[in-house]
Every structure is written in C-alpha cells, then in structure tokens.
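Not sure how to ask, but would you mind making up any protein sequence you like and the tokens describing how it folds?
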Amino acid sequence: MPNSVTRLATYDDLLDLPDHIVGEIISGVLISHPRPAPRHALAASALGSTIFDRYDRNSPDGPGGWWIIDEPECHLGNDVLVPGIAGWRQSTLSELPTLAWFDVAPDWVCKIISPSTHKHDRSTKRDIYAREGIAHYWIVDPVEQLMEVFALLDGQWTLAATAKDLDVIALAPFEEFQIDLGRIWA
C-alpha cells in the first residue's frame, strides 16, 4: 500500500471557496464553515458596534485609540484565522493595511462560537492566539447567553471573567465602560 501525502492548504484554497463559506487555515489544514447564523451575527454586530462607538480611533464618546474590525482575516504565522471581531490599539497598528488581510496580531479577539466552530475556538485557535501574544480573548455563546473573557498571562490563558444573561459588566481590555449583555442577545 503506498504512503499517502497530505497536501498543506494554501491561500488559493481559501480563494476557491464559495462566497457563503468562511475559510481558515489552521496548522496547514483548510477549515470551512457557513456564514454565521442570525443570532450569532446579531451578537457580533451589537457587541462590535457597542465597542466601536467608544473605542474607535475617532470616537467622540469614549477613550478611542483602537481599530475595531468585524471578521478580519488575520495571517498569524502560517495560520489564517477569521475571528468574529478583533481590535488593534493604534500603538500596535498605526494604519490599516492596504491588503485584504492583517499580518499584525490583534490586541483583542472576540469569537462568537457556533456548533460548527466551537471545538477549534476553544482549543486550536486559542493556542494560536496565545502563541501570537494576543492579550485578550473573548468567547461569546449567543445560544447559552454566556461570555468568557480570557487574559494571556505568561503565555497561558487565564479565565479573567464570565458574564451571562442580562449582566452589565466592564471587561478587559475595555474596562472604561460597561457592556449591557441584554443588548447583544437575540
């Protein structure tokens, strides 16, 4: 029996996916899943707009100083990940890239988990984010109405906070204001 050789996924494999499919490359493997379901998209939109309104670099209503981007394509080493929302302090990323992706690791990543992504979001992707030194990782579950906030300490993730249901809470790295979780759930 001949030995089989597994081909590593390439960026062209991502480009070949249909428009309604989100593709990522994790450890050389092409991972694809459908676009987010409505309650997941709503949670991402509501949370992203809440943070954007206060932290966008030109915000008149908050401290500003960030780029807050929905579904950015992040090239992290040989991995290509698409978090639900990510943020870069302007001190980390002074200008937006001219290419269709980011090759500078964000300072904060938020993943809206779904049945098709939760296994990778809680393991492989979280490990990649730690490897890249991303300081804050939020996992949001709109079905369970639960948010977990992780902080990277000495290269390891530490659960810094959990919030659920209708909690109103300030969460790192956006401690200057409180997020009303009741606004992000369907």
Observations:
- The longest strand covers residues 156-164.
- The helical segments are 11-15, 38-55, 118-121, 124-131.
